[in-house]
Amino acid sequence: QVQLVESGGGLVQAGDSLRLSCAASGRAFSNYSMGWFRQAPGKEREFVAGVSRTGDIVYYADSVKDRFTASRDNAKNTVYLLMNSLKPEDTAVYYCAGRAGYFNIPIARAYDFWGQGTQVTVSS
User: What does the DSSP 8-state code read for residue 44?
Assistant: First the structure.
């Protein structure tokens, strides 16, 4: 199994940028598609982006398209989420997750393992 640890969250102002990292340890990281999800208080966990095993293809939720960029570095066993033009509605706990199948699956229960999450708070 793969263990995931997110970092990089924090408190920022609207319009700012933030980069999240998710470091993986354990079995071969490059065997897995990776995803980013987020969960705001009182809401269901929401898909943000999915990254293919090689990182050459990324699938985004409409709500973050053109503002967020997901990527991975298999040599460093790390997946990233660069968030630009942040809005108060982006406030949530952000999670990375992995699965053995396709990367373009926006359903949380389809993912096999998860990190503990990192809080992102955007003030207006």
Answer: -
- Of 21, 42, 24, 44, give the one whose Cα is nearest residue 33: 24
Closest among 98, 104, 64, 100 to 81, alpha carbons compared: 64
State how far the alpha carbon of 2 is from the alpha carbons of 5, 49, 50, 75, in Å. 10, 19, 17, 15
Closest CA to 33 of 85, 70, 6: 70
Q: Match 């199948």 to its residue by tokens.
A: 101
DSSP structure class, residue 31: G
Contacts of 60 (CB under 8 A, 6+ apart): 48, 49, 68, 70
Helices (H), 1-124: none
Quote the tokens at residue 59: 């699938």
CB-hemisphere CA count at 13 Å for 27? 8
Query: What pLDDT tens digit does each residue of the chain (124 aa) get?
Result: 799 999 999 999 999 999 999 999 977 999 999 999 999 999 999 999 999 999 999 999 999 999 999 999 999 999 999 999 999 999 999 999 999 988 888 999 999 999 999 999 999 9
